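#random but structural
TW: two for the price of one
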Amino acid sequence: MPYLLHQLLETSTKRYPEQEVVIYKNNAITYRQLDILSNQLAWVLKDTGIGKGDRVGICLKKSIEEIVAIYS
């Protein structure tokens, strides 16, 4: 059964909310934090008029924020 990326994040967040999922240099975030941040960014994008199926380019250096943007 195929899953969308955000569905996998939601499932993992329910199972392992406090487990670190992204670690970069001296920073880390948990599944819960990744879920919250990616949802916040998704709502910002929606509020600016970006809708389902629209494409959004991501141009970030390797970082935790890059992963948040990918999951949004």
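TW: number two ↓
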Amino acid sequence: MFTSINGRSVVVTGASKGIGKGIARVFTDAGARVLITGRSEAALAEAAAELGCEYAVGDVASREDCLVIAARAVELFGGIDVLCANAGIFPSARLADMTPDDLGSVMGTNVDGTVWMVQACLPALTASGRGRVVVTSSITGPITGYPGWSHYGASKAAQLGFVRTAAMELAPKGITINAVLPGNIATEGLAENGEEYIAGMTAAIPMRRLGSPADIGHAALFFASDEAGYITGQSLVVDGGQVLPESGQALDEM
């Protein structure tokens, strides 16, 4: 049995929908006190009402917003035990057509936003004595690639570089930091790519199904547990085996 995290305080960024909302649901179901964040107050209010948690509006690409979010969590809960740095965007842009704004917005949210949120929560995580940071990266970038997402892939690989060195800086403070690398997860964002895309992705997964936001939430919950207290600077792929086949033939041989 894992030690209960009932009553612990958790901040989940980018959690009005999709993977972030799934992470928040797993933690609230486990009895944690959860604050979700995002840029749309209407979407956050709806998600918070559904999940039974608190919310704070903010853009993680803004260092000032991150400080406000962290302060709000401390005000509500008296501290922060867990930060799930999940906020991310993935607009498509081919390399030949990419603009400075395309690159800047992706790196600003996915990389800068991760760094600023960890920095903002650092005093509270240190005071917790059992601080945990879980970063949502991706298989795209660190392991795989997809045309149109070179900037996204670069941002997700950068997160892992951050995690490895941050782990060394945070260890003396009693804080662990790890990353979850989702494969294709059934979210609103994925649905926008169309049925043909979804069918193709499903066919490429040995388990023959897309993952759910809860699958990522449970991985985050493990990293947040007392039992994972000796794990830091690591990454966990949660993809139904998607990165394993060396070819389409390997899938046919199953």
